[in-house]
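mind reviewing these tokens:
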Amino acid sequence: MSHPTVTREQMLKRVAFFNQLVPSTMPLIDAVLPEFQRENYNIIGMGVCEDASMEIPITDVENFHVTLVKAQPGKGSGLHLHQTVEVFIPLSGTWTLIWGDASEHEMTLGQWDAVSVPPHIMRGFRNDGDQEAYILAILSGTDPGKVEWAKNVLDTARQAGFELDAQGHITRT
């Protein structure tokens, strides 16, 4: 049985060298708010990024998207949902997963723990450690769609002078 071959040049199109990644400091509209400021490194696929300028090193998406999130203590993500499953794995620090339409549930996750959040469930996360930390986020699907934000997140972003355009990209109002 013969297996396919992959040249070095072909393989390099499927590699993301961390020291060459450029993070987005405004990956999603919630990041205009101080408590949700973070850096997202989209590694495989665009995911649900709302930053039109984001450069993606691995664009050959085969049913999942991978993003590395770096956040300072107390920072994280606003309440939102996706049409697909989302997996979170803290790579460092202590993170809190928040879920429910009114943020009524919380769970602490430590380094290397993993959680798979079902589709259509409001969720968010926060670095609850005392140092900068990283969490890995994996979205299922070749096209995970757009983020659906909790109303208060979008309202507060609008008050800060930002909204999403028709393509789902962040713009100033």
Q: What stands out?
A: The chain has a mean pLDDT of 96. The chain is about 10% helix and 30% strand.
